[in-house]
Amino acid sequence: MIMTNITTRNGFLLVGFSDNREMQMMYALLFLLLYLLALVGNLIIITITTVDRHLQTPMYYFLKHLSLLDFSFISVTVPQAIDNSLTDDNYVSHCQCILQVFFFTSLAWTEVAILTIMSYDRYAAICLPLHYEVIMDPRNCKWAVIAVWLSGGISGILYTAATFSITFYRAKIIHQFFCDVPQLLKLSCSSDYLGVIGVAAFMSVVALACFASIALSYVHIFSSVLRIPSAAGRSKMFSTCLPHLFVVSFFLSTGMCAYLKPTSDSPSAFDLMMSIFYTVIPPTLNPIIYSLRNEVMKGALRNLLLGRKLTGKNTFLPCC
């Protein structure tokens, strides 16, 4: 069946979690529940950070773009996986695979970039409070977000062009539930993939610089927080910073582990679970983490659910 599909169709076969029909339906249901949870959570954050006047600040402006990013990121892989499981057809066309690689790599890099910007925002707010409004004025916020999205698009173009410039000699079987770049490289028997390795090496250096910037920001943040005499003040600062640090650590650690680990022709269940940890879990958990640990967000959510008036004139970031 697999070999027939490969020889007669110009595309790829995704080898998902199981060939058992009942298990496929169970995975489809699980993915659907996670997808709906991620969509609802991120849409709520986008809504309340747009209309609530108390949330018109740089921190929530960047959080809104993170939610928009997570909304898009999970939509690249999960709906296709659900459809494949429900229809019992793991075939994806060549064009579908190209688009999935482009949007996945673009949005993955954009997530790294926005998390870096958010860490600098927290650093400026806590360590440079007197200069915060100058550093994070509306113009700077807008240009930072534009640069983040543009950098993601450029990285996606580079990755996609390099990946699909190779010649696929092997059977086009991808041991994943989506078109994953490391698995695509396994399909080449030549040195064509050296271009992809070059792009990956360059992006890894930039990602490492982002990680170093995030780590340095939090070193300064925690050293400043620990000098706060009030226990309540320290608690408030930690409640703002720790969720962001958790998101950064979880996303980068699982993604690096999955991409730096040598791929095998027959990935284990652990390999598939790792891919879920950096593709599905972060977009699902981010709204929960940022909402449950933030009293302002919880208050805005209560107002939204109770139908209270949220709109108001913005006093700090009117154009964002």
TrEMBL record:
SUPFAM superfamilies: Family A G protein-coupled receptor-like (SSF81321). It comes from the Eukaryota. One of its GO terms (cellular component) is plasma membrane. Residues 41-290 form the G-protein coupled receptors family 1 profile domain. Its main location: membrane. CDD domains: 7tmA_OR14-like (cd15227). Coiled coil: none annotated. Keywords: Cell membrane, G-protein coupled receptor, Membrane, Olfaction, Receptor, Sensory transduction, Transducer, Transmembrane, Transmembrane helix. The chain crosses the membrane at residues 25-48, 98-120, 141-162, 193-219, 240-260, 272-292. One of its GO terms (molecular function) is G protein-coupled receptor activity. It is found in: Cell membrane. InterPro entries: GPCR_Rhodpsn, GPCR_Rhodpsn_7TM, Olfact_rcpt, Olfactory_GPCR. Belongs to the G-protein coupled receptor 1 family. Odorant receptor. This is Olfactory receptor.
